[in-house]
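Something for you to look into today, if you have time. Could you write out one complete protein record for me, on any chain you like? Leave the record below and I will have a look.
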Amino acid sequence: MKQMRLRIFLVAALLSIVLPASQSSAATAMVRDGSTLQLGNITFRLDGVDVPTIDQLCIDEHADVWTCGIEARDQLSKLIDRKQVRCDDLGVDPTYKKRRIGVCKIEGETTSLSELLVQKGFALNIEASASGRFKPDEARARDDRQGLWKGCFVAPREFRAGKQDGPLLGAACRPDREREIRETLFPEDLAMPAGCNIKGKYAVRARVTGNVGIYHLQACRSYPGLKQDRWFCSEEQAQAEGFRRAYNCRSPSKGK
């Protein structure tokens, strides 16, 4: 009996290694942000890329500020253009268990949406990705000054972590204007993107629960007058980026 159980275990382990990633049915995609889309009731984060979140700001080639996070979302929407999308499911997103990692492509196309975003300069390659090897695409986008690379910005992961001293990237980063650039990329009063009224605040005390910050809904007593560091469009987005809800918030159903 023990030998039989051992054989079953070994066969199951082998199958988990050799079987390909499960593939979703082609469906209409709902774009959440530049790296996240929803197919039916499943939310996928695009594999292999680091993309600006909705509230991230960048500087363009004329030294003007622009909402690169919103533009990244819009670029993904334009790429999909109401076409059917299919995703290879690579498993649970390690940073947020309610989300999946997906290699997503427009039905009938061979190039992934991740690669297309990198080529357009609106996403960076992630070295540790299982399938996202887009360094040559990123290098070409940088050399051609595509998308983010035409101006000056910080890597999206640095922005999400609130690391204001992260490396400046892009063709328009002037060393003699570094302080002014950083103040522009991380303003004291970050403008609220349309429809994204959840406030996020980095907080050391949030680390007790394994988070980087706390988010505050309009139903929270702490919301009025709070000087936010981030804006989120949904609680799911806030939680996915490592923020927990403020303890003084009423539940949404009771806050009406």
